[in-house]
Each structure stands twice: as structure tokens, then as C-alpha cells.
Amino acid sequence: MRAILSGLHHKKNLQELELELIDVPEPFDDLAVTFLEKQTKASLTVPISKVVSSEVVRLRINAADLQFAAEGQSEFSWELYLNIQQQTTRGLIQVESEYLSDRHQFTLTSYYQLNSDANGMALFNMHTQQAEDEFSINAINLQDDQLQIIGPSHINNQPITNQRLVLKNVTEDSSAEWPITKMSLHGLFTAAIPLSDLAANTTQQLFIRSTVADEELEQRVVLSKSLAGQVTQAVTGNHRLILIEKRFDNGIRVQEMAAPTLPQRLAGVPAKLGSASKLVSLLMDKINLVYMRRLFKRGHRPFEQPTLIFESFGGRQVSDSPYAIYQLFTQLYPGFTFIWSIDRSQKRFCKENGIPFVVRRTAKWVRTLEKASFWISNARFPAWVRKPNYVTYIQTWHGTPLKKLGLDIENVSMPGTTTVKYHANFVKEANRWDALVSPNDYSTRIFRSAFGFNNQILKVGYPRNDELLNSTPDDIVTLKQQLGIPLDKKVVLYAPTYRDNQFAEKGKYTFELPFSLDEFREKFGQDAVLVLRMHYLISNALDISGYEGVVFDFSNHPNISDLYLISDMLITDYSSVFFDFAYLKRPILFYPYDYHMYKDELRGFYLDYEKDLPGEIAHNEQQLLEQIGEKLQTPDMSDNQKFMDFYRRFCAIDDGLSSLKIVNYVVQQIEKNG
């Protein structure tokens, strides 16, 4: 029997913890969770308040109850135990952790955070007696000719208003103030001070001014964690050096001074040149293919600097959840090393966007993979790629399962494999994943069974969907302008899946549109446009010549979330794209023109396709065109009971901070491992 902490939700003034139960016998009516404080051995038992399913339960607790008067104690670390009091089964099961939260400010003087101990067991840490004049930030960096600060804009879910960033001169009685603007992620702000605004030859301390509960505050900026991964030095265009310093009391100081002279800088060059020469020589020795394969079998020492490898769809794209995590990671911790594993086709994109990369199946790629600290991917690496034991492999996956996958597929008809081989490869690969990202309880259960997966699940939602929850109407207008979509027309997105029985050769599939573009143009061309998004496995390009201005093919656009955002409705069939599009609460129409063949002869489904979908089904082209017109008249599905039931089941846990939670998980692993 196992109990795993899999989520944290804030419900008014209470904290709702979610537990995944594995092999725990029902009924769950008498279940409770006992909190045991490690130092004082104080205990608190809280009954389970809600049974979500046969595998998931929830309890609510007030974080204020996890602090009490204890002489000299300001930090409380609570272990969690599932308390079973059934007639036939009694005892305590220590709760494991698959959810690691960011610091959550509870009051001006206290905060809490969910962590795990060295054995992966859950800890609810409560910190009290924090100084009222301290304000803890998330990150501070010098880049793009700015001093950039990111920090919280809420206390216990209540917004902090009128926030301003202040620099005070350490030696003089003077200060300067800059406004703080909201960031794209909910609950965080970003502030930027142009480096040119910094006074010359000064040392200045950072403060935050704000309004909390109608009280005007001035608080010293502190950073409780190390500056590792953040950029703390910069030289300006006029040859001035800027340094960020973290003091013994966690306060932040900013120094402005003349940059080192040329002779001073040249003093360190010989050692650097010698090191670079050795590296080039080493890489040249490993360029041949034979040595590349041998390299995977040899032992390697990891890079001294934490190094993260990102890959999306086997290197074919720079996209999806790995890209969302990468973008936030480089913003918060640009001092770490980030490298993308790509096909050669993505070299131009990476160069144009300043993305560091290594080309797959080269000697450098092998060496980089083997010496990295983390792999973050949304698909499987080749089976012959060896994973060192010091690598943490985070699998983000790439969708909520509608069609059966992995071990749940009884008969695999994909080219180049057999059912037995397909199953074996799935299990072998899944056992290499140290953590698997899940968007909801439904997916968690399927991942456990379909992948034979028993390692850590991070049920935080898909990072790629943060963009959907944080984008503004102005962002959508900008996207439409960039893509050339008319601003005065509605947008219909058609995003079907590929069919396993429509392959042309290994790795390539064919597809033909199952409806008439002429009919669409005649019926909707004055008021709407059609955006096509074919699956990346589709090999044949669709011919849309003659439909310019009405039909747009964005099958190769790297970020499908952009297409979700510009679209007023979605048409799909069996693709899992509708799980993501549902976050926008816009209408979805299903067009499974070959439903019975697909259901009975191909993979089958986890959901009841005719009952559980968040939209109507069109079975032929006439129904499709009729329902497109109806859907375009109902742009918001918030009042649709069936749709909102689906939303609460599959989308509700995602708060737009999934990327941040994965970043926090990685950083905590780095700090835990020293």
C-alpha cells in the first residue's frame, strides 16, 4: 500500500492536499492523515474530507494549525502518515511526495513549503517568525542591459498592491524608485531597472515598497537560496561593471564600478586558451561514428555546472512543454547550462533565436547527454541511449490520453514493430524516467498502467498550457498579426490525428481532408477562416492553392498553443488536442468520419467517445458545416454544464504555473544533490 502527495490547492483560507492511493483497500470513509512534527513529536490528525475517486482523496487543513508556541522554535517540519482504521486493516503509511511546491507566503511573518526528505517522503514545512521588514524574491539577474527581479505579488492568495522596487545608496541618504509590472505567470511580478540608471561608483541595497492590507510597507529584498544559476555580473556598453552580491543576511546589494582594464582581462587568457585547445582536441578525437557508439558504454563524469538537456518530439521541434520549461528556466536561472537536442533541420531556428543546441547522433551529442545532469523530453529517447545514474530524466509526455497507448494496446499495427516489441520498449523506456508529468488524475492512472510506471509522478499540469491561461486579448491580437490572420474574422482550427492504418512508409503517414474547402468558403468565407494543423507524422503537404485568405496551413508552426489562442473553435476527431483547447473554454466540435472503424479495428479509447466528450459529434460533412455555424455563435462555454464537468475533471488543477513547478522541482534536486 502506498500514499503519495500529488497536489496542493488553495481553498479560501485553507490548504487542500491531494493524495494518490495505490493498493489501499476501500472504503475510504474512515481514512485520516496524521501530521507528526519531527522535532517536538507533536501530532495532528485530519480526516479525509473528499473522496475524488477510488485512487484519489483530499483533505483540508489550515496552515495556521501547523505552528504553535514552542520555545526557541520557529520552523516546524511535519511528516505525513495515512491513518487507516478499518476493521481488517489498521496502521500508518508514511506519505511519499510527488509534489514539491514553491514557497507560499502565509502572512507577513510566516510561509510554508512542501518538500521531500532524502527518502522521498513528504514534508510540510512551516516557517514562522520571519522578519516583517523582509521580502523574499524568486530570482535576480543581470541581462539585456537590465537588472531583473522576479518575485511574488500575493500573500496567501491576496494581491499585494502598489509594488515598487527601490535602490538605496549604502553610503549616502538617497534612493531611487521604479514601478513593478505584472509578469505572465499568475502570482508573480517582474521588475526591471535599466543598468544605465544606476549611479556610478555606488553600492546600493534593494528594497520593495508596497501596500498590504491597507498598510504601507518598505521591506528589504532577500533571497533565501543561493545565487547559483543566476547572472550576477555584467559589463555595460560604456565599460562599467555591475555586480550582484548576496550578503550573509540574505540581503541583496548591487555594485556599480569601472570594468577591469584590458591588461587585467588579458591576464586570465592563457589558461582559458589552453583549456579550450584541449576541449577542441578531445572533440576531434571523438568525431567518428564508431567511437560515438563506444562512448555510450564508457563511464563519464558529469559536468561540474548543472546542465539540462531539452528535447521535443525526438529533436524534430523546439516546442511543447520542454520549450515552456526552458523559457522560464533561462529567465529565472540563466547561469545554468541549457542545451537543446535537435535534428539538423532545427539549426536555423536555434541560431536565429539564440538557443544553444547539439545535433542528435553526433559524437558531441553522445558526450553531452552522458555528462548532463537532467534530461527533459516529451517523447522517448532511442533505446540504445544509455542513461547514467546521475542523470535525472523528466518525461513531460505530450498529451492527455484519449486513444489507448503502451501496454493497453492489444494489437499494434504500426510499421517497423510488433506488439510484443512495442510493449517491451515502452516498459523499458518508462523505467528510465525518474519523474513523469501528469495533467490530471485520469492521466495518472493511465500512465501507471499503460507504461508500467511506478516512479515519481508530478501532477502539476502540462507546462505548455501555461501560455493558454496567462495570455491576454492583446497577446492574441499580436499573434494574429504575426500569422497574417484577419482581425475581423472568426478562426476555425482543424487539428485531426493521424491514423495508424494510413502509413506510407516507416515514420510517415498520408491524409486527405474529409470535407470540401469549397463548401467551407461558400458558407463561412465572408466571416471566418480555416486554420489547418496536421499531425507531424503526416508526410504529404496539403494543397490549399486557390484558397488564399480563407485557408491557412500551419502544420509546421512550432507552437500549437499559438493556434489555440487565435482560434474561436476547434474541430478534431481522436487527437488529444481538445484536452488542451478546453482550457480556453471555447467550443469544440468532433468530426470522427471513420469512428466505428477506428474504434473497433485500431486502438480503441479510454473515454466513452459518445458520452464523455466536451462537445457535439458530427458524423458527416453536412452535420459538420451546420454545427460550425452554431458553434461560432457560442464563443464561451462557461455556462455549458457538460463542458464544465469535463473542464473540472481534466483541466482544473492547472493554475498557469506548471512551468514554475517543474523548474522548482529541478532546482530542489540540484540543491539536494549539492
UniProtKB/TrEMBL annotation:
Location of this chain's protein in the cell: Cell membrane
Main location class: membrane
Bilayer topology term: Peripheral membrane protein
Database matches in Gene3D superfamilies: 3.40.50.11820, 3.40.50.12580
Pfam short name (any one): Glyphos_transf
Keywords: Cell membrane, Membrane, Teichoic acid biosynthesis, Transferase
Family: Belongs to the CDP-glycerol glycerophosphotransferase family.
Protein name, as recorded: CDP-glycerol glycerophosphotransferase family protein
Taxonomic classification: Bacteria, Bacillati, Bacillota, Bacilli, Lactobacillales
